[in-house]
Amino acid sequence: MSGAQGDYVFSEDFSVDKNVKKDFDDLGYVLIRNLLDSDEIKHVAKALANPEFEKNTYGVADGQGKAAHLVLWNQPGNDVTGMVARCEKVAGTSEKLLGGEVYHYSSKLMKKPARIGGQHIWHQDYGYWYNNGLLFPDALTVFIAIDDCKKENGCLQILPCSHKCGRIEHKLIGGQTGADLERVDQIAKVCPLQFVEMNAGDALFFHCNLLHCSSANTSEKRRWALLTAFNMASNNPVIKHDHPQYTPLHKVKNSAILECRNFDDLSGKDFFNFEKAQIHVVEGKRITEQGH
């Protein structure tokens, strides 16, 4: 995808101009390479080594005998990962792409261990956020590669422009929530599949209706990614659910990522309880958080 439409390289003077906005609106995504530089990635990786992230990790069955591993939290917090979610090049870019104020909807660390990391089936983020009381698909996700994400270790696969199809019907498939595959197959005929290969530090900003999936990781290299979802303030959920309703986001400068030395205090992040969420699914009350 290098040099293709929707593909950009971050620099200190990067901005969401009319071309970037048009690509996001037309394609349903923009890929911004080197959003986090090598020093920032090392800094974030050190933060993610906090045992609390491992303690709150859960495996979600992929229907193929493997599990997708993730840890999810509802509030950005004041640690290094919180600075990433709150900084201008992440939160500010998201506001410009969506066209208004956003707030932190959730963040998660997606883990695909070498050889055993499970797949994530075709889905739209709005396919389940819809059930959380979001009336409009005015949200996006920022997928930041912590490790290199390549075909062999299960990089993202997308159907460009598929966000224009609107919300697709979703249902439980294995332990995950997936889009109607017959519909996906038809959409893929007019929105040809693309593999989004990324280097560590690259970021994909994608619309909540963009169809995406990822294969299992059968390689010898792990695949970690840090994701933050933003919802527009004007799209405040009409029901209370497992993710937060509108909460003002206190943005910080990009320099705050490296300046932050908080690797230990994760108070206030509100880690997601997947065991409780699974009970909701069994009782038919909630569609659980999906992965990538």
Automatic annotation (TrEMBL):
Pfam families to which the protein is assigned, alphabetical: PhyH (PF05721)
Superkingdom: Eukaryota
Cofactor(s) it depends on: Fe cation
SUPFAM superfamilies: Clavaminate synthase-like
Entries under InterPro entries matching the protein: Phytyl_CoA_dOase-like
Name this polypeptide is given: Ectoine hydroxylase
Organism: Potamilus streckersoni
